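Sat 14:20. Reprocessing the chain from the morning session after the first attempt stalled halfway. Input below, unchanged.
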Amino acid sequence: LELVGLDARIDLVCLSLAPTTTGPPLLEVNSDVGLTVVDGEGVSIEAVQRITPLGQTPPLQRLQVRLPAGAELLRLQGPESASAQPLPDRPGWYAVSFQKPVPGSLELRYTLRIPAPPVGVEWVFDGFELDSATAQTGHIAVAVVGDLRAQRERGEDKFLHRVNVSDLPATIRQPQIALAFRFFRRLRLPLRFERVPPLASVAPPTTLLVREGLVELLSLQRLQIRRGSLARLRFRWPGWQAAGWSAPIVDLPGGAEVRL
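Finished this time. Tokens:
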């Protein structure tokens, strides 16, 4: 070591570098996942996964990721024309490949779709697990569209904490969010979806027209649905046939049917 043109004092700091890994890469992963549950249609998923290699990990050209069960991968965005193919010998796992090795940190964006969750029973959402990841953290947001109510199933899970919607990253923050969580080590969220019980009110202004030999009843039912939705209405008119009334003529919107 030859030093030329320096002062009398020299400060040297020696650092030992982690050895270059020869096995699977060591990775730190942060996944932010947004679910939109549409009643009667399915679940759309938007996820952003930030991957940081640890130590002297060489540039990455291939990763293995486990997606949510039953998910259909609609789109994958990433560096170097990232593409994904299912692994035949590992159900639910995909191989993410890059045309050229990617040095340093990278970001993957997923768009997926899964079938609608069942109503009234536990439904577990998990996935976005990366092979060789030593640390996996992130956020998950659940938005509900329609007449469903989402709630987290009871149970102890120290790796899953509920947070305020304002604490979510902007990438997954959206209207109609019902639940928001931060997870550590793994993503596993047990949920239950229930139908929102309908709540409605009716204002029935009624007119009775009396003519010679004829009595006519006109009733306008103004129905206001304040919560949920209604698939069927039932009107009670006890003894209308015995009292001599004829079958009512009912006008309904939207092609609804009347059964007496």
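The chain has a mean pLDDT of 84.
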